[in-house]
Structures are given as C-alpha cells and as structure tokens.
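Incident log, structure service

09:12 report received: a user says their structure output differs between two submissions of the same chain.
09:20 pulled the input from the user's history:
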Amino acid sequence: MAIFLTRLVLGPRNRLVQRDLSDIQQLHRTVMSAFPDSGGQGRLAHRVLFRVEEALGGREINVLVQSITEPSWSLPEGYLRQPPEVKNIDPALDSVSAGGHLRFRLEANPTRKVVKETDGVRAKNGMRVPIRTDAGRREWLDHKAEAAGFHVLSVDARPAGTRTGSHSQRPGRLSLESVRFDGLLEVLDPALLRQAIQNGLGSGKAYGHGLLSVAPG
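09:34 re-ran on a clean worker, output below:
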C-alpha cells in the first residue's frame, strides 16, 4: 500500500487561506477536498494526516498532507503560490531497517483520559485533558513510541499553539493544544514504524495532529 506526501505552499494573503489557518475545521475540509468521498469515513479510508509548518523564518506557510490515496488537488486560484508537490514515499520507507537512526518530527495533541467516578461507579467514557508538563509529554511520547516500533534517543518538545475551529456536528468551538516534537529515534521494528507513520500518533488526527515524519539521521 503506497503512501503519498504532498507539500502545499500557501498564498498567505489569500482570503481562503486566512480563513483556513484561523479555523482548523475549515482547513480539514479543504484538505479532504482532494480525496473521493467515502461515506463519511474519508479521513480514515484514505489515512489522511496533515501538518501546518512555517518556513523561511515565517515568510512561507506549508501544509504537508500524507495519505494512502493519491490526491487530486483542485484549489481556488491564488490559494497556492506554486503547484502541489506530490511524491510516493514508499522507497524511503522501504529503506528503513532495524537499528537505524532517523530524525523525526511530530506535531501532536498529547492528552490523558480522566475517568469520573460517581457513588463508586466509574463512567464508561472518560474526558481527555491536555498534558502540560515536560515529564508528562515525554512519558506520552515514549509510550506511543513503544507501540510504534521505535525508541526515542533525544527530543526537543515545545508548545506549538492551540488549534481552534468550529465544530462540524455540535455548537461550540474546537480547541486542541499542540506540541511539536523534534528529535532522533532508533528503529526497533520497521513494520510497526511504517504502520505508525501511515496511521498517525495520538488524538486530533483530523485537525493537523499525528503526522510522524522521518528522515535519515
């Protein structure tokens, strides 16, 4: 199953770009417009993940979009500064081997579940709350890494702002705290690592979180 990575270089003064950057739900819709409808399961069906990144000292805004379906981009005039760059990253992932060291980047929404208890009865579903301590975030990352076939050798974790937007199905606003992890990992199980790259890590995957990018160390 191929994995495709798209780089979109946005036109920052475009009205629709400004709308999308201020509302993560709108940006999600724009990203999903490149993929066939799949009965309400589009993101999962196509394994779509994305991440917003600044480049050139903040003078350029990129959106990286990863998927198992090759996208078909048709965005409004002026939305992009240049044509979309789409590439198949399978050859790079196929070259990964156990014991290898890779640089990685992950923008994630580290959370923990708080389960309420009433009269001694625990609720079936808990509420997710952000993890805000350095130690807690590292513990969260190490736990994800263990299941994803890699070991974190070093990492720099820093807050990356709060992603906000309108809810698609209920009143109120989305508000997801982001943390950017940049570091070095050791590959323990290439197959598990590939699966983690394909499926993403953590919560908030529809809203710019969970895309794990790797490069030679």
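09:41 both user submissions now match this output. Likely a transient worker issue. Closing.
09:42 reviewer note: The longest strand covers residues 150-166. The helical segments are 15-22, 24-32, 42-46, 90-94, 134-147, 190-199.
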